[in-house]
Write a structure and sequence with these properties.
globular, 3-stranded antiparallel beta sheet, alpha+beta, Arc Repressor Mutant, subunit A, 6 helices, 45% helix, 2 domains, 165 residues
Amino acid sequence: MLIVQSKHRRPAVIAVLGAGDFFNEICLLDISHCLSTARAITSSSILLIAKEKMTSLLRREKVVSTFFVSSLLSSMLRFRGELADALVDSAEQRLARALLRLANVGKGQRMARIPKVSQQVLAEMIGSTRSRANVFMTRFRKRGFIDYNGGLEVHSSLRSVLLRH
């Protein structure tokens, strides 16, 4: 997840990245300071590409350039959606969306298991407290949207929480 933090405020999660996502693309510009910090919430493998190597690949390799631009546009679209959700949705809806994203429940899938994530991390992802995240998780479990069977299982029926206004 990408986090921003100011001196006197708690950290805010601005994005949750998945497999194949780029981060820190801003370093390709001549900006001397970091705008966010990346923190892994599960075991991860990260490929580091030096700025000079990446700019060279983008100039020479059309396939790499096309893939990178497509990834940037998808990231921008996802970020706009997440910003709108943060401004409009309730904390409960933001948690439902975060769980569905972590589970990557696709069309036709009824359920998916997510990596172990603490309720504190989930609370940070939705801009709330751990106790509120716990209340929502308990509510989701009682309604059959999630299960704790050797790990957290997210059911596609959790999408119904997103439809409520």
